[in-house]
Amino acid sequence: MKKWLKFILVPAGFVIFIIAITLLNDQLKSLSYDDISTALDGIPSLKIALAMLLALLYYILLGGYDILAYKYIKPNVPLKTKDIAFTCFVSNVLGNNTGYSMLFGGSLRYRLYSIHNVSMIAVTKVLFFSSATIWLGLLTVGGVLFTLFPVSIGFWGYEVSSRIVGITFLTILFAYILLCTLNIENLYFFKRKITLPKLKIAAWQVLLASADWIIASLTLWTLMPTGDIPYFVLLKVFLVSQLLGILSQVPGGMGVFEASITLMLPNLAANPEVFSALLIYRVVFYFFPLSVALIMLASYEAAAFFKRLDAKTKLIGKAVSSVIVQMLGILLFFAGMFAIFLTAAPTETDRFRDFFSFIPQIVRDISHFALSLIAAGLLFISRAVQLRIKSAYKAACILLGISIIIFISSGKYIPIIIYFVLLLIVLINSKNYFYRTRSILTIPFGTWWYCAISAVLVLSLWLGFFVNKEAIFTWVNWDVFFDVLINDENDSRYARAAIGVMIVFGLVIFQRFFGKRQSELPRPKTAEIEKIIDGQSSAFVLAAVKADEKSFIVDKKKKAFIIYGHSQNYNIAIGDPVGSSGGKGEMLWSLKEMCDRNNEMLSFIAVGDKYIRYYKDIGLNIISIGKEAKINLSKFDGAAFKNIKTSVESSGVSYEIVKAADFEKFRETFRTISAKWEKDKEYISRHFIPGNYDEDKMSKNDYGVLRKNGEIFAFAVLEETKDKQEITSPIVRLSGGSEEDFVYLIYKNVCYGKENGFLRFDLGLAYFEAAGIIKTFAQMFSLAEHFAYNLDNLRLFKDMFNPEWSNKFAAIFVDSFLGVRTYTKTLASLIFPSQKESRLRFRLIRRFFQR
User: Fold this and answer.
1) Is 85 buried (19+), middle (13-18) or exposed (0-12) by CB count in 10 A?
2) I need a labelling partner for 768 at 20 to 30 A (CA). Which of 50, 259, 330, 693 fits?
3) For position 851, what pLDDT does the model report?
4) Mind spelling out the 3-state secondary structure of 212-262?
5) Nearest CA to 583 among 605, 562, 557?
6) Mean pLDDT, to the nearest integer, of 725-748?
7) What crossing angle do the helices spanning 361-386 and 390-410 adopt, rounded to 10°?
8) Helix (H) or strand (E) holding 703
9) How confident is the model at residue 771 (pLDDT cuts 50, 70, 90)?
10) Residues in Cβ contact with 261 at an 8 Å cutoff, skipping those fewer than 6 apart
11) HEC string of 438-493?
């Protein structure tokens, strides 16, 4: 998302929320808290149970969208129906509760589907298909309803019939069905080819989505007072209110949905049973499924942990644990929100008064005030929990435990007590997920979090004024206000609670402006990088350090660093963290938070298995980009190269080593060979990754060279680690040599590494069809140009050395197909930045999306 767009859309949602609360307050001015409380108690348990079943059925049917999508795209993955249903339920519940009501968040789906090796392109198609399906349901239900049962809508002094909207909806729907019936192969939308599903699948899309909209509305209608609201009237109002909630981007459409319902049902807005039904609907349709989803995730994670079937099971556990921690943060936020709202409610009930009579009134008043402080604290701690901070985990457990005691002593709020107890149990059993030692006081809060917490504050203040509005205006006089604070009436308790909440908010704001902040990761000096590199065992890292257009950050101990480059609003790191420090995980988190503060995206390219857990924890998606070939030199015998060796040497070619001390004697020769090779190959200069020949940076390297008739015609740079763990040839140049000469040069370099006691020779990255869909990255790395970017031939060449293959990944944040495309274009522009190279960048991007 563009920086300016992010700063506009998120606060705009908050402004819409404020407007909605204002309108809602105006609609409910004739109601009192006692009216609504009585109406809530009057809702039959059978109605609530039926509404809960309908809500679960709604989310279960949403899974049918993805099942249809997989039948449509037919991916080459044996995905079971239960796996699809699990992923859909969790991602849809989370999406509905975090501001994307009835739409589908992409990032969580990518994370869960990747467990089953579903490709990113396949997941993207599923997302588009499912999103289109739910809109087809809206077109169907809304089209029929607005056409057959039209209403007039006032618009700037004009009356507009909904029949026009209904006919438009049905026209779009019929056009879609007609195109699916005709099965047109070459259909383009915004210059992109689209393959529509067959009529049978399209028909199921319409039926499923229509049923879902109807079930969602029936969930609310079931809770409404019997006989007061005709179903079709409520359905029309429900459709419009849900759309307004979606457009507002307020989490779950909270406040906006309720305000829309009461505005469009003005004759019933004064009925306390209607507003009570809206409150119960909020719990049943949003918070109840969220709790179910958390239990499902926890059970899934526990099963993977206890079975310990194989490495794949452990990987699943790590993948799901990242989702669990995010949901724990959200559930803690809701816990704080519920607790703040309850501080505005009366604290006495006749049913439990005698049982808790032994508790002094002053203790109850103090506990009520303490609950307001705890509730506000939970809102802020929930963010620290999502960031996996250990002290936040401990604080959350303590605050939840104290809250449960306070709720029990109040003698009410049984459902809330159950919610808090279950959340505490799950949190206690999630201890291993929290490993960061950072201070809670220095955690970052983004725009979304500030707006969400502010919305809860505003809503709690409004709720308190609504509950106590009979006595609220007596506080205007300061003398009366201070007298109120020491009384034991309900409005006095609310006043103290509101002050407690404001104190916490004020302290947080003060700390944000004047307190200690998390320091930026230090920018290292060249000498510090060289010191870390001296102990490095990766030849690839040594080559990457010498590439242009890169930056470094180091950990606080200056024993580890990350290599990265900046392009547009992306920071792209190359390889895993480098060095010996044990704080690399915290360094990754700090880098991610630095990017968040600057509204920049973070990603990693060519990373291994070691830090995948951290990449997932900071919200990145893992994509396979191929495998890296490393030769175990102790096992290398060179038998496969016997014929090539004989052929090349019989043609008069010889191999020798040019030491770094003799480089100046051959500088001009190497320069001439490199220039000719680049011209013949139409080579385009690279940045950020290894590939360019920079004679100044490589003057301290040894070289493997080939001579013919006494003249050097080929050379390869030898990158060697000081501990003799690895050696590689990141740059190879030939002037007029044959393909056999190239193979012979690499072979002799491998032999040199073995003879000189090195353990491994790094041949670099190769693309495997089964490993993923991304070929572009392999094309960008060394040696691919020697095979005219034919990646199959490149892989066959490396297979000749019988290497040990290890997986390589990209760790990126993507929530849509466009996100993948943007990332790829950004990476290409970082590697090939100049305007004259735009044609090559286009070719690489095009290859990226080839299946």
Assistant:
1) middle
2) 693
3) 30
4) HHHHHHHHHHHHCCCCCCCHHHHHHHHHHHHHHHHHHCCHHHCCHHHHHHH
5) 557
6) 92
7) 150
8) strand 702-708
9) very low
10) 237, 238, 241, 274, 278
11) CCHHHCCCCHHHHHHHHHHHHHHHHHHHHHCCCCHHHHCCHHHHHHHHCCCCHHHH
The widest CA-to-CA distance across the chain, in whole angstroms, is 108
Does 709 score more than 80 pLDDT? yes
Identify the band that residue 846 occupies on the pLDDT scale cut at 50, 70 and 90.
very low
Reduced to 3 states (helix: H, G, I; strand: E, B; else coil), residue 792 is: helix
Tell which residue, 764, 772, 766, has the closest CA to residue 850.
772
Cβ proximity of 839 and 641 under 8 Å: no
pLDDT in tens, 390-404: 999 999 999 999 999
**CA 349-355-359 angle, 5° bins:** 90
CB atoms within 10 A of CB 350: 7
pTM of the predicted structure, to 2 decimals: 0.77
Question: pLDDT at position 108, please?
Answer: 72
636-675 pLDDT tens trace: 998 899 999 999 999 999 999 999 999 999 999 999 999 9
- Residue the block writes with tokens 């293959």: 805
**pLDDT (0 to 100) of residue 324:** 79
For residues 699 and 714, what is the distance between their CA atoms, to the nearest angstrom? 16
Judge whether 451 and 397 are in contact, CB under 8 Å. no
Which amino acid belongs to residue 53?
L
* Start-end of H helices in 115-230: 120-148, 162-182, 199-223
Tokens of 646: 């004989």
CA 451/CA 4 separation, integer angstroms: 16
- Closest to 387 (Cα-Cα) out of 447, 318, 433, 333: 433
Q: Which of 59, 52, 49, 50 is nearest to 212 (CA)?
A: 59
Tell me how far the alpha carbon of residue 227 is from its chain's centroid: 45
Q: Which residues have a Cβ under 8 Å from the Cβ of 834 and sit 6 or more positions away?
A: 685
Residue 185: what pLDDT? 62
The radius of gyration of the chain from alpha carbons, rounded to an integer in Å, stands at 32
CB atoms within 10 A of CB 104: 25
Mean pLDDT of the chain: 79
Q: Rounded to whole angstroms, how far apart are CA atoms 128 and 113? A: 15
Determine which helix (DSSP H) or strand (DSSP E) holds 812, and give its type and residue range.
Answer: strand 804-812
